[in-house]
Specification:
The chain has 9 helices and 7 strands. With 248 residues, it is of the alpha/beta class.
C-alpha cells in the first residue's frame, strides 16, 4: 500500500474565512470534518499541511517548527489575497499554539484553541510523538513489525536540536498571552494529559480577551476533532462563529 502526500484543504464559501491548523506529526486531514461542517453553512475554510507533515517520516525529520510557523503565516496571507480582510484561526495542539501567536497578526479576528500546550513538555514526550507517527506510518504501508523495529532502532533517538526548538517555541508562547484580546474559544478533552488541561486553564486566566469561553469535552482525549465529542465540538465552534457575527 502506497500512502500519498496529504493535500491541503481549501473549501471556498460565501462567508468569512477560517484557517484550521493541525497538530504536530499530523496533517490537514485531522481538520477535515470540522472544515466540511463549517463550509456546509457557508464559511471559507483553509487547512494547510505544515512543511514535512502529511508525508513520510523522513520528510517530517527534515522539517522544523519554524517551517510550520511559516506555513501558517503564508496561509493567512493566502486568505487575505483571496479577499478576506479578517480571518478566524482554529488550531489543535501545536496548531493552537500557532493560533495564539497569530493573534498579533492584523488579519486575526478571533481564535479557537483546542488542546494547546503552553506548559513545558519533556523532550522525550515530543520525541515519542515522532516515534509513534513513524511506526503508524509504516504499519499502514504494510511493513513487518521486525522491519519497523529495525527502522526505529536506526533513526531514534532523534537529534535533539529540532525537538528542543519545538519545546522552546511552545514555552516562548506563554509571554505573549497577556497581549491577546481577541474573542477566544478554549476547548479541552476531559481524558487528555494533565499538561494540556492545565495549559488551557492557564490561557483562560492570562489572555486579556473580553469574550472568553471554555468548554470541556468529557469523552475525548487530545485530538478532539477526531474523538467521540467531535460533533459537539463542531456545533460549539459554529455557535462561536455566529456570536462573533452578532457582536460585529
Amino acid at each position: 500500500m502506497i500512502v500519498t502526500k496529504t493535500k491541503d484543504i481549501y473549501l471556498k464559501g460565501t462567508k468569512e474565512a477560517i484557517l484550521l491548523l493541525h497538530s504536530f506529526t499530523s496533517s490537514a486531514k485531522e481538520m477535515r470534518g470540522l472544515a466540511n461542517y463549517l463550509h456546509d453553512v457557508g464559511y471559507s475554510c483553509y487547512a494547510p499541511n505544515y512543511k514535512g507533515h502529511g508525508e513520510t517520516p523522513e520528510k517530517l525529520f527534515q522539517s522544523s517548527v519554524e517551517e510550520s510557523w511559516q506555513t501558517a503565516v503564508e496561509a493567512i496571507r493566502f486568505l487575505q489575497n483571496e479577499g478576506h480582510e479578517k480571518v478566524v484561526v482554529i488550531g489543535q495542539s501545536l496548531g493552537g499554539v500557532i493560533a495564539l501567536r497569530l493573534a498579533n497578526h492584523i488579519a486575526c479576528k478571533a481564535i479557537v484553541v483546542i488542546s494547546a500546550p503552553i506548559k513545558e513538555r519533556p523532550i522525550e514526550s515530543l520525541e515519542n510523538r515522532v516515534r509513534h507517527f513513524s511506526k503508524r506510518y509504516y504499519r499502514i504501508q504494510g511493513k513487518s513489525e521486525d522491519w519497523i523495529e529495525d527502522y526505529i532502532f536506526q533513526h531514534f533517538p532523534r537529534p535533539v536540536e529540532k525537538i528542543r526548538a519545538l519545546q522552546q517555541f511552545i514555552l516562548n508562547t506563554e509571554p505573549l498571552l497577556p497581549k491577546i484580546n481577541q474573542p477566544i474559544l478554549l476547548c479541552k478533552g476531559g481524558l487528555d494529559d494533565q499538561v494540556f488541561l492545565d495549559s488551557i486553564d492557564w490561557i483562560e486566566r492570562t489572555v486579556q480577551s473580553e469574550f472568553i469561553k471554555k468548554i470541556t469535552y468529557p469523552d475525548s482525549g487530545h485530538l478532539i476533532t477526531l474523538d467521540k465529542d467531535r460533533e459537539r465540538l463542531y456545533q460549539d465552534v459554529l455557535l462561536f462563529m455566529k456570536q462573533l457575527s452578532l457582536n460585529n
